[in-house]
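WARN retry 2 of 3 for item q-0093 after timeout on previous attempt; input resubmitted unchanged.
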Amino acid sequence: MSDTINAIVAENIGGKTKGALKQLKVGDLPDHDVLVEVAYSTLNYKDGLAVSGKGKIARKLPMVCGIDLAGTVIESRSRDWQPGDRVVVNGWGLSETEWGGFAQKQRVKPEWLIRLPDAFSLDQAMAIGTAGYTAMLAVLALEHMGVVPGTKEILVTGAAGGVGSVAVAVLSGLGHQVVAATGRPDTHGFLSGLGAGGFIDRATLLEKGAPLQSERWAGAVDSVGGITLANVIAQTVSNGAVAACGLAGGMGLPGSVFPFILRGVSLLGINSVYEPRAKRELAWARLATDLPKEKLAAITAGIEPMSKLPELAEQIVAGQIRGRVVIDVNK
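OK item q-0093 returned
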């Protein structure tokens, strides 16, 4: 086993924190119980912020970036995991407080791991990644609140992004009438192929609206936040629900309590980072049955080398990437 590995490491250089490709020793890795040979990671919006330095993600430095990884166990001090097990890690503070998946090898805690369903290859797992896993958690949350296919539409904001594209694919496959909110008309064909039956310009959701608006959405998956989320809540039907899992449009919620106390709308927060193993396993099991392979292939923008991550990070933060980018950590 080689003593050195390549990784994308965020460091403070000249007062700026950015991620760059560098070599580490295996002995530099955290002293966790399971050593994984990483095959693939992926590029999420949060990764873009961390690598580009446009967001303060790492809470300590140096930090190996990347909130996802998929690979094979090669060493284990845990009875739960054996060499040869195919595993995936999403969240758990990777890239923030724990060294992450943009590395050829990584040591992780046993409780972070889940077994990858046989339905997926390692690169398919990272085409899904935290974004797709989060989308499935949002779908499960809506189902738990009684949002089922019916006469009213489901809205997906940020529809051309990672979370949004998987949400459109899964919800439409379950029989929902999905409306996609996007500011990019050139993505309409892509989203129609995933199952979107209608579109709304994201700009209309960025205009400050009344506390209560015309009821339209039986439910929604929102990865934007801010004014967009406030308007979506105000447009949700009585006893509907909105699953919120992002803040690309801001951390605030400039709305009213009216939708909650006059319509009984539920706002469901999705915390994909620290969900327990049972819920993670359920989400991945449902992805294996409810995310058609042809739609996953359409969502996958391609496999890119880890060496290209600084450039890709700038692109995803600028909103120039559609769908999911898989990262080959060995290139």
